[in-house]
Every structure is written in structure tokens, then in C-alpha cells.
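pls ignore typos typing on phone
iron/sulfur cluster + seq
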Amino acid sequence: MPQNLPPPRIHVLAKPSGATCNLACSYCFFLDKELLYPNSKFRMTDEVLENYIRQLIESHRTSEVTVAWQGGEPTLMGVDFYRKAIQYQEKHRKPGMTFENTMQTNGTLLDDEWCEFFKENDYLIGISIDGPQHLHDAHRVDKGSQGTYDNVMRGLRLLQKHEVEYNVLVTVNSLNADYPREIYRFMRDEVGTKWIQFIPIVERVNPDGYNVYQMGNTVTERSVRPEQFGRFLIQVFDEWIREDVGEIFVQTFEAAARNWMGLDSSGMCVFEETCGLGLAIEHNGDLYSCDHFVEPDYLLGNIKEEHMLQMVASDEQTKFGQDKRDSLPQYCLDCDVRFACHGECPKNRFIETPTGEPGLNYLCGGYKGFFHRINEPFKILTMLMRSGRPASDVMAIVADREIHFKESFAKAKVDDNCPCGSEMRFKDCHGWQRPKRRRRRRRAVTPQARPPVRIS
Ligand code: SF4
Ligand code: SF4
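k done
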């Protein structure tokens, strides 16, 4: 029997093809996870698939179940694998139960058959794209180090042609983080998407060069810098809050708005007080505490030997989830925006606070600035929503209130707090200018595939 009361619903990211991928994006932390399964073919068998779907259903006390596929690259399994998954959902469905099938893909292998299947089965597809070609191709390359932008856009247009529901996922790295408006406008105006997710790249460097375990407090050059990420979010927010509220949905802003309104859940695990309800399952049935902790120390067990529900409710997983709250340093406990941040994801908590306490989030400086910047507009938004007015009314009010910003920016000195309210230094926030050397570096970027993983 489970040791703790199991949650009514969970979210599991399934990796039917393990870490294998047809691309070799230079920042992909997951490619190294191949090392966990030497000599594996990295294909989920029929037996594991049915077992997984059945246990996932049995682990829910709600009528809605999300079946989420990810990788590596999940389309490597072929469309028939997912047809079977649908059959197993029907076979084990409880009365009144509905399924939401989702898939995160690089989009390069999509064709009409895939898109027809997605449409028929109401899939929600997440497409990974890092911006316009010069930004996307800098890191998202195939195994021959060739950019993948054209192929991704081809897949994306196919999804649109078949009217498949989709969103875009942008990984924010040290290169594209300097182009927030360009990326946002590209997604909105050229791609034509309504839903955007921004995920920061924070890649720790291990002495062995691999990321099977996350260790140390040094990050790769590709990783976004904290103040850079904060500025990125702020600049996208500036445009969104003046032009696109109610039209374009940016996951980070939606989650923050929910926290400002004091709703039960932000909808993003990283901004929840505790975690532990978002797990990951490998191709062979191994269940891990989280997609970001697919490491031997966080292996809960295998669904062939133990029921998923039992592992979810285990002391180990409960502690994993509660540690997010219980391990916060005093600096976070005293923070005025903790209600919105909650110290973000534990995977990024590897720096020290100003007083030398360990466990502060690497991205703290950026998040703090972003949350301070949105405080006033989101207080207005909350007031509007509570009085039954549409969220989009906030745009005119904010535009009116922030009319003086231009003047204040013109007067601000580089080390002053930015007049936008972020409390970041002006030179790191609205006073920041893309350095010329960055432009030179951009021209010099040579796409490099992540080297193949050596399995000894
Ligand atoms: S460890 Fe991070 S990614 Fe995983 S559930 Fe917790 S907050 Fe989310
Ligand atoms: S903004 Fe920084 S100090 Fe505040 S809760 Fe987040 S990580 Fe902690």
C-alpha cells in the first residue's frame, strides 16, 4: 500500500525512445542520458506501453488524464506506436474518463500522416524552435551540424495546414536571450502562434563533460545568464502588456498572473511551492522523480515491478516534492516575490546567497527583476479580473501609467535602479544595449552538433 495519500492526478512525461534523437542540439542535456542505459535499443515495448497506460489511468481519481510524450525525439517511434497507445487508452478507460494527448517534438519528421493522426486524436503538439533562422540554427542542428530551421518550419506549417493544436517552446540561451523582441515578434507575426513557452538553458559543467549527474556551480557558455534571462522576460513582457493581452499567451506570464491572483495553482511546476507530481518514465518502464532528475539517485523503481501509484505516494517522492519548499534558503524565505517564484526549480539551486548560504537559484537575479517589473501591471490586472472586466483592459491603463518611462530612462544613470520597477541596475535592464561584440560573435557562430555519447 502507498505510504502517503496519493494525489488525485499526476503528470508523467513518457520517453518511449529514451534519449535518442535525430538531432544533436548543442545544449541538449538529455542526450547524455543514453549513458544510463548502455546497449539499450531505446524503444518502449508493447508490454511496457500497455502497462504504462493502464497504471497511469489507475493512478488518477480525476476524469481527465494527460498522456504526455517527449524524448529524445518521440516521433522516432513511428505513428503506429501512438495508435496503439490510443487503443490502450480505450481499452483501460474508466467510465467518463477523457484523455489529453500531448507531444513535444522537434518537428523535423512530421508529415501528412502524422498530422492527420494528431488531428484525429486531438493531440496538442509542442514544437521546439528557438527563433528566426540565425538564432535557431546556432544550436538546433542535426548530427551533421547543419541547421534545422527549414525542416522545423516545414513541420510547423504542416501542423497549421491540418489545424492541429500546437504551441512553441523556445529555449532561451546566451545567444538568443539578447533578441527578446525579435523572437517574440517572429513567433507572433511570422510563425503565427498564440501560445509560447520560454525555458531557460542552465547547463552545468561536470568534470567528465557529461550531464548524467548535475554537479558543481559552473555553467556552460551556452547557458543564459541570470540578468540576461530577467531582461529577456521583461522586454517580452513590455511588448505583451501593451499590445497582446488576451491574444497571445506566454506561459510564464500566465503562471505569474495566476500567482498574483492567488489561485490554487500557477500551472507551472517551477513556480509551485512544492513539486513531485510531474514525473518521467523511461522507455523500459523506469520511473524517475522528475524529467529534470533522470539520474540514478532519483530512480523510484520500474512499473514492471511496482505500481506507479505506489511510487508516486512513496516517502521518497513525497520528500522530493516537499524538499522544494523545505530547503529554501533564508534569502528566499525573506523575499517579497516568493509567492510567485518559490525558488523556482531545485535543479537550478546551486549558488550561494549574499550571506553564503547554499541553495539559491542560479536564475534568482533575473527572476527577481522580472517579478518586480510585473508587480504593478499585475496588481492592476488582478483588480480588473476581480471586478469582472476583461484582462485586455490592462493594456490601456498600463500604457497610460508608463508614459513617463521614456523620460525616466533618458535621465537614468547606468548604476541606478531601472525606473521600470525591476530593481535591476538600469544598465542591465532597460538601459542595456546589445554589445557590438555580440553582433560580431553572431556572425562567427558555427553550428556545432553535440558530440555523440560514448557508451563504454
Ligand atoms: S524538480 Fe523542477 S522541473 Fe521537476 S517538478 Fe520540481 S520544479 Fe518542476
Ligand atoms: S526571486 Fe530569488 S530570492 Fe526570491 S524566491 Fe526567487 S530565487 Fe528566492
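The chain is about 35% helix and 10% strand. Residues 269-270, 275, 278, 290, 292, 324, 345-347 surround iron/sulfur cluster (ligand 1) (CB under 6 Å). more later
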